[in-house]
Fold:
Amino acid sequence: MAFFVSIVAIISCISLYIYELPTHHCPFCIIMQEYDYIGYLLYVLLFGAVVAGGGIAVLIPFREIESLRTAIPALLKKTRIDLNRVLHGFRIHSDLSNCDLQSHYVSKVTLMTDRSRRNCLRVLAALALSRIVPGSVAEAANRAVLKKTDRCPVCGMFVHKYPKWVAQIVFKDGTSYFYDGAKDMFKHIFDTSKYTPGKTADQIVAIYVTDYYEVELIEAKPAFYVIGSDVLGPMSHELLPFKDQESAQEFLEDHKDTKILRFQDVTPAVIESLDRRS
Amino acid sequence: MILHPAVIANIIAALTVSLMVVYSAYYGLRIYRHWNIESGSELQLTLERRTYLVSTLLSYTFGLQLISLFLYVFTADTLYPLFVGAMCAAGALSVNVFGYPTLILKVGNFLLAGLWLVLNHADNQAYDYPLIRKKYLLLAIIAPFIVVETILELDYFLKLDANVITSCCGALFSSERGEGLGSEIAALPALPTLWAFYITLPRRCSPASISIFGEKAAMSIPLWR
Structure:
């Protein structure tokens, strides 16, 4: 019972803290390298706890058997001591760590024995630093540079893996978001406050997409978008951006059943039809 | 099929576990039927010797079975860049219909194998094999599941097709799409789910963790929609 509730809780709310995205619930992304493989630790602890708990429940009915009279209480005692140590560690580190998400990792991860706890904390502190430092340096130098840690606010994908499909939106306050395709960028424009609470579409000052032939960032509003082709992006059917009509036309001739749209022609219905094709 | 070292490792692990479990289950059933600790017959002596072999073999086999759950998820996580539309293991597992059933069976078998290991450990602590029949009965129950899991896993890996457009986990676990178990779980209200989570924690653990997690949750990203 607790096992199922825990899995549901991971999908429904705990994962959101790890991703720091309000709409991303995947229970599998947390095992990725980009999240420091934190998911493996969570799942190993969860499964280990379920087996230990289930094992004790199975053994308790046999505690009256003559030859197990000493063995089973010894096993139970062992588990209880471990539980106390775990709780002890949990309290100390939760008091020490401050209230950001990184410390959320720390308090979960330090559910361990005393000896391994200090080492683990050191490793986590190093991990925390390695996650924060490169980001802040790059941010100070140039806000609009795509970093390895940038994720699409719509789907949660790491954008740097798909350099040919990058799209970008810059807001009035200087924050910018990257997308792994023009489709997700349009989704964000159509429903800005859902993916980035507190922001609205009129605060957008610049939008960029990657030209399909040139593979460089171009202004999104004057660009031409081809849909319905056989070329798939990381999110399957996509809008393929071209900087001018000629290159879009050239692409159209090479790939059958395609259609050219301007920026203002792209509506939520067009995006939905692309999603439905996948 | 995709010839990737992780895929081959998975297949070898699955076949090894299946083979060992079927072999052990055969002797396990013989032990279950004919075990009589009072007797000094030749059969009983053979069975006593056999149980040493079988339980040692199974300790390692089930150890491998426990690891194979994580190996399977790791493999799916390694393979996802090959499939269009997948951004993590969730997409790689939905490439064909065998991905998720295999995962569910693997989770179930993980728990059963873990229980067997606990029973075996307790049995080995005593001098007169008090749990021997129960542990081999449990083995007989586990064995068919392990075999089915191996068949499904082979089906999954052999039928992996890189041309399939799969689903992104952003869509599978989207809170507003409203179709499928993943979406329904994702759409659950956060606060009651968290409370359910805390309440199901062991009682000795809950008071401390509720206050700690509660404070943090309130100061993190606004979740309570």
DSSP finds nine helices and no strands in chain B. Chain B touches chain A through 65 residues (CB under 8 Å). Residues 5-162 of chain B form one domain.
